[in-house]
Write a structure and sequence with these properties.
Number of strands: 34
Distance between the termini: 19 Å
CATH superfamily: Kelch-type beta propeller
Number of domains: 1
CATH class: Mainly Beta
Largest sheet: 5 strands, mixed
Strand content: 25-35%
Number of helices: 2
CATH topology: Neuraminidase
Helix content: 10-25%
Strand order of the largest sheet: 24-28-27-26-25
């Protein structure tokens, strides 16, 4: 086979590999949603449930002007760098046994670090009732319904935020059969039972509030919505002590955010501040705020680079590596180049940064435990249950790069050799090559 044929064959192989990688990247495209759950476990961010809607219309749960609850279940591998413009979601819907639902809450639980639990929620379009709790094992890619030791317990809430601490999920407020509540349920995910926490000095009944654990003991609650009075003021910070089962209230000052609900809250990497984003008001003068947990003073953080995103609400946010990772929600339009995932680099407290590029390097300082590194057996299971496409894309891209480099070397050497032969003085009896 001639050198020209070899070079042409190499180029064709490169084109085929590039095309296959492109096809893999568009195999699964999730629908836009809100009132979903987002669980970060085993270096993956799992998305489940929620309402889908027409992004060109303003949709509310109250007028029921939605397309429907969503059955999709999918994740994204957060252990590798990526760009939010080209997300490679991995479909796990075939493993989903949960009826369509919205407004549930989820967190890592049980006695190991490879299971996350889904509590509560409600179904609007299906006559099928959901169980109180579901468990998803990331090692076996399987859902199950845990057996509760107090089998008669059946209080199901929705529109709340579950906070996990020492194997217990703290479930404050939310809706019970459509009625606002302010009780504290405590779900022991190790012993699989429910208890009730103190209600003395507890906040008034509310839903879609913000909540976050800090100092490895306290849970801060603020904002939210009550049907009769609208959104709560953000100056009142209600603190639940998980060790002493007691409530205290703090008055915050500074640049206090306007009253809101449906926003997200995460703990900063240094463990000394809470970061909130979004909220469902018709107009938000600012979407991003920081609450100093030592002084309880609010401020608007300085941000740099990247396009400042439009505020959204009823979304989810997780801290992964150096980033606040915000997923889906209402209030943004994908036709205007707004992505389903927003990334805020929070590694520098003096200046946060909106970006489209995720780097999984761990933060230098963090008060939160880092997720476990996947074992070789879990990697095999992931490959056999949906990661094949993603791994294939990575391997394909790597092989394409190697092939391209090799092909470039061949082309360069062939061209150099050809040039040399043209310039060479022919010896007697040798025919000069003319092209």
């Amino acid at each position: 086979m001639s050198k020209n044929s070899l070079i042409l064959l190499s180029l064709i192989q490169i084109l085929i590999l590039t095309f296959e990688g492109s096809c893999r990247s568009i195999e699964f495209v999730p629908t836009q949603r809100y009132l979903h759950t987002a669980t970060h476990i085993d270096n993956k961010l799992y998305i489940l449930g929620g309402l889908t809607f027409n992004e060109n219309n303003y949709i509310t749960e109250k007028n029921k002007a939605f397309i429907g609850t969503d059955k999709q279940f999918f994740y994204f591998d957060m252990s590798i760098p990526f760009n939010t413009k080209t997300m490679l979601w991995v479909d796990q819907t075939d493993f989903d046994i949960i009826p369509n639902h919205i407004a549930a809450t989820s967190s890592i639980g049980c006695a190991n670090n490879n299971t996350f639990l889904l509590y509560g929620g409600k179904s609007l379009l299906s006559r099928m009732d959901t169980n109180l709790v579901y468990a998803f094992n990331t090692q076996t890619n399987s859902w199950s319904v845990p057996k509760l030791t107090d089998g008669n317990f059946n209080i199901k809430k929705d529109s709340l935020k579950g906070i996990m601490h020492n194997g217990k999920m703290y479930l404050f407020g939310g809706l019970i059969d459509g009625q606002l509540s302010n009780d504290m349920l405590i779900f022991d995910t190790i012993n699989m039972n429910f208890t009730t926490g103190s209600s003395v000095n507890a906040p008034s009944p509310r839903k879609h509030y913000g909540a976050a654990l800090f100092d490895n003991q306290y849970i801060a609650y603020f904002g939210g919505k009550a049907d009769d009075i609208g959104e709560f003021q953000m100056s009142e910070i209600h603190i639940y002590d998980t060790m002493n089962d007691s409530w205290t209230n703090r008055k915050s000052t500074g640049n206090v955010p306007t009253a809101r609900s449906g926003f997200s809250v995460v703990l900063g990497l240094d463990g000394k501040r809470l970061i909130i984003f979004g909220g469902n008001q018709t107009y938000l003068p600012e979407a991003l705020y920081v609450l100093d947990l030592q002084t309880f003073v609010w401020s608007i953080p300085k941000t740099s680079s990247g396009r400042k995103p439009k505020a959204r609400f009823l979304h989810q946010a997780n801290v992964i590596g150096n980033f606040m990772v915000i997923t889906f929600g209402m209030g943004y339009n994908t036709t205007l180049k707004e992505h389903d995932v927003l990334l805020l680099d929070i590694s520098n407290n003096d200046e946060y940064k909106w970006t489209n590029v995720f780097d999984p390097s761990p933060p230098e300082t963090t008060s939160l435990p880092m997720p476990p590194t996947p074992s070789s057996s879990s990697f095999y299971l992931q490959q056999s249950n949906g990661l094949g496409a993603l791994v294939g894309a990575v391997i394909g891209s790597l092989f394409s790069g190697i092939s391209l480099s090799f092909g470039s070397i061949l082309l360069y050497r062939w061209h150099k050799d050809r040039k040399y032969r043209r310039q060479a003085i022919p010896t007697p009896g040798e025919r000069k090559i003319i092209n």
